[in-house]
Amino acid sequence: MNVIRNYVFRLYPTSPQRDRLTAMLHDHCELYNAALEHRREAYRRAGASIRAVEQMAELTDMRAARPDQAVWSFTSQQQTIRRLDKAFKAFFRRIKAGEKPGYPRFRSAHRFDSVDFRHGDGIKFDATKSSPGHATLRVQGVGVIKVRMHRNLPDGAKLGQVTVKREGAGPRARWYVALPVEVDTAPLPETGRTVGVDLGVAHLLTASEPIPDLTDHDGHAPNPRHARTATEKLATAQRALSRCQRGSNRRRKARDRVAALHGKVRRQRVDGARKAALALVRHADVIVLENLQTANMTKRPKPVPNGDGTFAPNGAAAKSGLNKSILDAGWGVLVNAILVKAEEAGREVVFVNPANTSRRCARCGHTAAGNRVAQAKFECLACGHVDHADRNAALNILRAGTAHRDAA
């Protein structure tokens, strides 16, 4: 089975190279915004739609008039135009689907963090002339950058699109190169197991049965709470940022510190999600998950007016704490990691309706809100079955997924 696997390696540019990479992002951001302005004005003044091909044809004249833009790869600038074109296509698709349109917006240089290339045209990745675990990346206008390889590319890998991206800002920023490669993966041996997984806050997940290297004997996987662990450092950095004058160098450095802390939390969350997903796909052939709508679950509660200009308590403070815990758990990151690992391993992922999974008895099927005695305790009012609430939910999810597959 052939899948596209993204190999991401960290770059170690020198200080001058880091400045050139930053300048490259800035110039591509300027190009993106200029192309967007071109489209906006053409439609506003004449009702004309500008195509990506027409804007690419103007790049030659632009590069002749702007020597600073001509330093960079012509193909990478074409890719930036295509990037804007994809944004417009997504905009029109959302309009046809009746969704919130989300018109393409101008990009800030601080938030334009990646540039796409075509390998061999303005960029070249080379791992043959370096020592094991190291490679080089030659970027037009920047030079030869050192690359650390934590894993090898597959033999005979053909490189197409190459993305250079930045994480963070300033001297604390990390630079990476992303190489999508088509690889031939062999499915893992079948285990004959189907597992139901309940995502939670007290525990990151609870499985319907213990999973080696992931859960305890009760099926619980601990929630690392990376954001909560970094709360004190983040709060200190945010306070320092709020005291700085806008536009000052101190504010820029303080902003970089905040970005670096958030970047560390994100990397920890992604790493944990990938390890958990790998343990799941190694253990079971079929993984059953709830089809959770995290965006809806983390909405703020609506105010409750009393009619006299005041508002009744609506539990906003408690809901805010729950929302932070849900987002810190990173359910979406974990589900995406499971989908990616399952595709590579030839496993099946089934999504079921989450309604009443925590209120239904896994033994007799009785459903009632009173069955949930406490956050962690389930006690059926009909048959007296007692279990951990999350484990009971995982068994219900497993049963619903099995029924769904049998019906299909």
Automatic annotation (TrEMBL):
All copies of domain Transposase putative helix-turn-helix, residue ranges: 1-46
Domain of life from the UniProt record: Bacteria
InterPro entries: Cas12f1-like_TNB, RNA-guided_DNA_endo/Transpos, Transposase, Transposase_put_HTH
Domain Cas12f1-like TNB: 331-397
The entry's keywords: DNA recombination, DNA-binding, Metal-binding, Transposition, Zinc
Pfam families: Cas12f1-like_TNB, HTH_OrfB_IS605, OrfB_IS605
Domain Probable transposase IS891/IS1136/IS1341 positions: 179-299
Family: In the C-terminal section; belongs to the transposase 35 family. In the N-terminal section; belongs to the transposase 2 family.
NCBIfam families xrefs: guided_TnpB
Protein name: Transposase
Organism: Dactylosporangium roseum
